[in-house]
């Protein structure tokens, strides 16, 4: 990925080692990739109207029902369907 700007920062040797350990585990290709993601997360968190990711654990039966809705063409994906359901729920709560 070509990026048009370069930012130079100084960090401790310990921090570089920790970043390299994360890269070595395979989640990121380079330390720069890890730092770019951290910067994106920081910006999202500090935006005027931030959007937050939420981890949702669903019982298997409910997940199966959502999968059936996707298979029948009522949604593009389970994740998309969950977003829709949460958005509609939030709208209904803010109307009151």
TrEMBL record:
<dbReference type="InterPro" id="IPR002145">
    <property type="entry name" value="CopG"/>
</dbReference>
<dbReference type="InterPro" id="IPR010985">
    <property type="entry name" value="Ribbon_hlx_hlx"/>
</dbReference>
<protein>
    <recommendedName>
        <fullName>Ribbon-helix-helix protein CopG domain-containing protein</fullName>
    </recommendedName>
</protein>
<dbReference type="InterPro" id="IPR013321">
    <property type="entry name" value="Arc_rbn_hlx_hlx"/>
</dbReference>
<dbReference type="Pfam" id="PF01402">
    <property type="entry name" value="RHH_1"/>
</dbReference>
<feature type="domain" description="Ribbon-helix-helix protein CopG">
    <location>
        <begin position="6"/>
        <end position="45"/>
    </location>
</feature>
<dbReference type="GO" id="GO:0006355">
    <property type="term" value="P:regulation of DNA-templated transcription"/>
</dbReference>
